[in-house]
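User: I'm writing a short report section on ligand binding and want a predicted complex to refer to. Could you take this sequence and flavin-adenine dinucleotide and write out the structure as tokens? A short remark afterwards would be nice.
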Amino acid sequence: MAKTILVAADLRNGALRQVFYEAVYAAQTVAEDDDILCAVLIGSGITTLADEAAKAGVHKVIVIDHPELEAYRPEAYLSALVKAAGDIPPKAVIFGHTAVGRDLAPLAAARWNAGAVTDVTAMDRSSDGRLLFTRPLYAGKAFERKVFTGSVTMIVTVRPNNLPPAETDSAIEAEIVELQYDAPDLRTIVKEVIRKTSGKIDLSEAKIVVSGGRGVKSSDGFKPLEELAEVLGGAVGASRGACDAGYCDYALQIGQTGKVVTPEIYIACGISGAIQHLAGMSQSRVIIAINKDPEAPIFKVADYGIVGDLFEVVPLLKEEFSKI
Ligand code: FAD
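Assistant: Sure. The structure tokens for the complex follow:
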């Protein structure tokens, strides 16, 4: 019997995030022959995004658009998701492993009495055809592979920048369905949203991250890093050491208690490489470390290491990359 697989679309600044397409890829991997893939768009003023989502390789786009859904509220978003699923529990619900996805996924798991695998970085099949979900453990020091048993609803969150994005096809357009939002009796209201952005490019999805640690020594010390990131088309990140010292906002923090990033290139400037920092960046494709201490632990995970003063090295890199 055909079953529904929902992909909860991640939105940022009124646009679909890249992780949405990666979540669609996960949904396509989970899907069997006659399963129905549905993208679910929840928010306010989002109907214009439906056409874009309809080309993302799903069969159906469900839009639930209401002013009350402008700011994320767990109960409201869960009730919208349940409405999108209809009467029969979905086969799977896929989320981005983002602030919203991480919050909503366990609620969805509880709602459908489901199994959950979070922070998935790879998916493949075992020799007996079972779907294996790979996820990191112990701050990225180990990986485990999990399978769902029985026929429970599968709740999955996918780490941004790890799975390939689903291929979009402008020739194929999915059916778009708008559903009415039945506001539940909410126990919380959002009074104010204070946005602290991490720059023009979304840090969790950036292909290149230039990160600063306590070695940058001041907020002005971040300027050369910002300039290098600008030249490379990347985003700026930071260690908690730099955030705690007040050199930058906590929105930039990468690590165990910050953001997890998996860019193509991670440039660590004046960062010692504490295990809690590595938890947020060690899966980056290529790691470049700039540190004046040749014994700094960051060099153990770096693919390329530059022993030197970041205030000399970073401007040189910027100058050279500007020529390309
Ligand atoms: P430091 O360890 O002080 O390193 C600074 C580095 O800069 C040194 O290696 C030094 O040689 C180098 N340096 C100095 N000057 C220069 C220069 N001019 N040029 C080049 N190099 C220079 N940390 C995180 O980052 N993210 C987290 O999410 C996180 N979560 C944590 C959670 C818990 C529960 C705990 C206990 C800690 C957590 N930490 C986290 C903190 C972590 O343990 C480290 O204290 C922190 O990462 C250190 O930051 P740092 O590398 O910038 O500073």
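A remark for your report: DSSP finds nine helices and 17 strands in the chain. The pocket of flavin-adenine dinucleotide is lined by residues 213-215, 239-242, 253, 255-258, 270-272, 274, 276-277, 280, 290-293, 296, 309-311 (CB under 6 Å).
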